[in-house]
C-alpha cells in the first residue's frame, strides 16, 4: 500500500514539473513576439512623421520623389555624407547626396531639384537609423549673382597669406565668400572696381580677434603697379560662418546677407 502511495505521489510531482516547464517556455515565446511587435510599431511610427522645411506642414512619405525650385548655397563633401545645402523661403536645407559633379553650382544659382526622404545612419556608438532629405537630381535654370559676376569679371582673384596651414578646401571656401560679396555688394567703390577693366582684384587672409570672437579677415584690394589699395575689409566668424562688412568709421561689424 505504501509503495502504491509513493508511486502516485511521484507521478503527481513529475506532472507538475512538466506543466511548469511548459508554462515557462510559452511565456518566453510570448515575450519574444511582443518585442518584435514593438520594434515594427516604432519603425512604422518614424516613417509616418517625416517632415522637411522644403514642404512646410506636409506629411512626407519615404522613397516618394518630390520636386522643388531652390537657391543653391553650398556643397560640402568632407563629412560621412556629402551635404548639398540649398535655400527656400529663407530656410536652409542640407540634402544628403552621392551625385557626381554636385559641386559645380555657384551660390545663388536657381535649381530645379528632385529629392526623397530616405534612410541615413548617424555615426557613433552603434549606428542610429534616421531619415533625411536625399538629392536625386539638380539642374540649373537660372544664373545666380556669382555666376553672373564670373561672366563679367573673368580674371582670377589672387590672394596672399602668411598662414601656411590653410587647407585647399578652406582656401576654396574663402574664395567663394569673396566672390559672393563682390557679386552682391551695393557699395559704390566695390561696383566701380568691378567695372574698371584695369582693376586687378586681390585679397589678403589673416586671423583676428574682435569683441571676444575669432575671425578670418579678408582684405579685398585693387592691385596696381605692385601696390594695393584696400576696397573693403570682411570678417568671417570662425564659429558660425557669418560674413560681416567692417564699418571703419564706426568700428563695427555689419552682417552681410
Task: Please describe the structure with a list of short key phrases separated by commas or semicolons.
257 residues, alpha+beta, OB fold (Dihydrolipoamide Acetyltransferase, E2P), 2 domains, six-stranded mixed sheet, five-stranded antiparallel sheet, 4 helices, 13 strands
Counting structural domains, the number is 2
Rg of Cα set: 32 Å
Strand order, largest beta sheet:
8-9-10-11-12-13
Number of strands: 13
Q: Could you explain how this protein is built, in words?
A:
The protein is of the alpha+beta class. The chain folds into two domains: 79 residues, OB fold (Dihydrolipoamide Acetyltransferase, E2P), CATH 2.40.50; 110 residues. 31% of the residues lie in helices and 42% in strands. It has four helices and 13 strands. It has a six-stranded mixed sheet with strand order 8-9-10-11-12-13, with helices on one face. Strands 5-4-3-6-7 form a five-stranded antiparallel sheet, with no helix packed on it. Strand 11 and strand 12 form a beta hairpin. The radius of gyration is 32 Å and the shape is elongated.
Topology:
Elements: H1 2-47, E1 50-52, E2 55-60, E3 66-76, E4 82-88, E5 91-97, E6 110-122, E7 128-142, H2 145-152, E8 158-161, H3 168-184, H4 188-195, E9 201-210, E10 213-224, E11 227-237, E12 243-247, E13 252-255
Helix pairs in contact: 2-3
Amino acid at each position: 500500500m505504501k509503495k502504491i502511495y509513493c508511486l502516485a505521489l511521484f507521478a503527481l510531482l513529475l506532472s507538475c514539473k512538466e506543466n511548469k516547464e511548459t508554462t515557462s517556455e510559452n511565456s518566453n515565446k510570448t515575450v519574444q513576439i511582443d518585442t518584435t511587435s514593438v520594434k515594427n510599431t516604432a519603425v512604422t511610427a518614424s516613417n509616418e512623421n517625416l517632415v522637411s522645411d522644403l514642404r512646410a506642414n506636409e506629411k512626407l512619405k519615404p522613397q516618394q520623389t518630390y520636386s522643388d525650385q531652390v537657391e543653391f548655397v553650398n556643397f560640402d563633401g568632407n563629412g560621412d555624407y556629402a551635404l548639398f545645402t540649398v535655400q527656400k523661403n529663407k530656410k536652409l536645407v542640407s540634402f544628403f547626396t552621392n551625385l557626381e559633379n554636385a559641386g559645380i553650382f555657384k551660390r545663388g544659382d536657381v535649381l530645379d531639384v528632385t529629392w526623397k526622404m530616405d534612410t541615413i545612419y548617424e555615426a557613433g556608438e552603434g549606428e542610429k537609423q534616421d531619415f533625411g532629405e536625399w538629392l536625386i537630381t539638380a539642374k540649373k535654370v537660372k544664373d545666380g549673382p556669382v555666376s553672373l559676376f564670373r561672366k563679367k569679371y573673368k580674371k582670377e582673384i589672387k590672394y596672399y597669406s602668411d598662414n601656411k596651414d590653410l587647407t585647399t578646401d578652406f582656401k576654396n571656401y574663402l574664395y567663394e565668400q569673396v566672390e559672393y560679396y563682390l557679386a552682391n555688394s551695393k557699395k559704390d567703390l566695390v561696383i566701380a572696381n568691378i567695372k574698371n577693366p584695369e582693376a586687378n582684384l586681390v585679397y589678403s587672409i589673416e586671423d583676428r580677434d574682435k569683441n571676444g570672437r575669432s575671425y578670418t579677415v579678408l582684405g579685398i584690394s585693387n592691385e596696381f603697379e605692385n601696390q594695393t589699395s584696400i576696397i573693403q575689409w570682411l570678417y568671417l566668424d570662425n564659429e558660425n560662418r557669418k560674413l560681416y562688412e567692417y564699418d571703419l568709421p564706426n568700428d563695427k561689424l555689419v552682417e552681410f546677407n
